[in-house]
From TrEMBL:
Protein name (record): Purple acid phosphatase
Domain Calcineurin-like phosphoesterase, residue spans: 147-339
Native source species: Buddleja alternifolia
Family according to the record: Belongs to the metallophosphoesterase superfamily. Purple acid phosphatase family.
Keyword Signal set for record: yes
């Protein structure tokens, strides 16, 4: 725990840094081109049995899920160890494919491996023994831990800039609050997205939830929603007793993270609502003092974009009380292509026991930025800027964390917004009201 003097010093340093950045004139650069066409050419050169679009995710305590795609059938097996070239351990998994109108996916493999040691570098191969060797690092089991956060990624030159900055952040777990590939019905864009992010997603766990661009439902042609998303991005929903891959939870190093689904049923009589109630009851704040929620459509938003949508307004009306009563510390959202951070808030008013709401839907998609905010700026909106970027949540210990938003438009990493956060369970006026 920080001493009182150390905490005061950190607050002063952060305030000074933000003041300096805010005082600097910033000229926003122009849009950049899409990468999907050039990435598609790269995919044609990959051998038919070589793993592509490799990504890893957390899968229950001390386990990881390895996912990859091949053009032709290969064994769903992962060999791994703790030194280069090692194959001391192996695990088998499953393979699936899907059809979407005229598109036929490749062979999608999923293998869960473990138990694994925390904060350890592992070497692994997917499928055939001649495949390239990859590495990933498991998250720590104790504080500190760093999360990198970015929503609405897409696959443009801005996406590449964002990913380059994230790669330098030395993060442990990546959180993506929806809108991944921006395939928007054109399925090869799912493949190019997987290719674009592989260098990062194969090395650290990526935990995602769905956005509106993942729905991909075509009435009378393809009536099923989330076909591609559910086939390609299997999350640990079963491990968290969820009936759907569209919402789940996981915990790592003292942080319990709830990934909610904006575009599936969320009413008070829905399975998602009932699951959320049960999941919150299971949270032990002595083991996971930090509680974080991730959703796509923001519940708080002062941007002119995406105002009044039911996925925001109605979901907030139904679930805000649950998150407030559980003392959720932070709620991340995407959807709006800009950055905005709110003070701790509840029922549209500043409340020291409410979550800090952060919209970070500015990863780099082709639709561009949402540049128009409501004027004047409401008091509950602490910082807002329509720029591409990503965020870093550095959870120092059970009581304190540092949130930083990094504007990536500059092609250099500019920390434009910083704040020191204190966990609600360590705040006596809030923890006393916990059930």
């Amino acid at each position: 725990m920080f001493s009182a003097m150390a905490t005061k010093y950190i607050v002063l340093v952060l305030a000074f840094a933000v003041a300096i950045v805010s005082a600097t004139e910033y000229r926003r650069p122009p849009p950049r081109r899409s990468l999907s066409r050039s990435l598609l050419k790269d995919l044609h050169d990959i051998d038919s049995t070589s793993p592509q679009q490799v990504h890893v995710s957390l899968s229950g305590e001390n386990h990881m899920r390895i996912s990859w795609i091949t053009k032709d059938p290969t064994p769903a097996v992962v060999c791994y160890g703790t030194y280069p070239g090692s194959n001391g351990y192996s695990a088998n998994g499953s393979t699936n494919t899907y059809n979407y109108v005229t598109y036929q996916s490749g062979e999608i493999h999923d293998v869960v491996i473990g138990p694994l040691n925390p904060n350890t570098l592992y070497y692994y191969r997917c499928g055939v023994t001649s495949s390239p060797q990859f590495t990933f690092k498991t998250p720590p089991s104790l504080f500190p831990i760093k999360f990198s956060v970015a929503g609405d990624l897409g696959q443009t030159e801005w996406t590449r800039s964002t990913l380059e900055h994230i790669a330098k952040s030395n993060y442990d777990v990546f959180l993506l609050p929806g809108d991944l590939s921006y395939a928007d019905l054109y399925q090869p864009r799912w493949d190019t997205f997987g290719h674009l992010i592989q260098s990062l997603a194969s090395a650290r766990p990526w935990m995602v939830t769905q956005g509106n661009h993942e729905i991909e439902k075509i009435p009378a042609v393809h009536p099923e929603s989330f076909t591609s998303y559910n086939a390609r991005w299997v999350m640990p929903y079963e491990e968290s007793a969820s009936p759907s891959n569209l919402y789940y939870s996981f915990q790592v190093a003292g942080v319990h993270v709830i990934m909610l689904g904006s575009y599936t049923e969320f009413g008070s009589d829905s399975t998602q609502y009932r699951w959320l109630v049960d999941d919150l009851k299971k949270v032990d704040r002595t083991k996971t003092p930090w509680l974080v929620a991730v959703v796509h459509a923001p519940w708080y938003n002062t941007n002119e974009a995406h105002q009044g949508e039911k996925e925001s307004v109605e979901m907030k009306n139904v679930m805000e009380d649950l998150l407030y009563a559980a003392r959720v510390d932070i709620v991340f959202a995407g959807h709006v292509h800009a950055y905005e951070r709110f003070v701790r808030v509840y029922k549209d008013q500043a409340d020291e026991c409410g979550p800090t709401y952060i919209t970070i839907g500015d990863g780099g998609n082709r639709e561009g930025l949402a540049k128009r905010f409501k004027d004047p700026q409401p008091k509950i909106s602490a910082f807002r800027e329509p720029s591409f970027g990503h965020g870093q949540l550095f959870v120092v210990n059970a009581t304190h964390a540092v949130w930083t938003w990094h504007r990536n438009d500059d092609d250099i990493d500019v920390a434009s917004d910083k704040i020191l956060l204190r966990s609600l369970v360590s705040t006596s006026t809030c923890s006393l009201n916990l059930n």
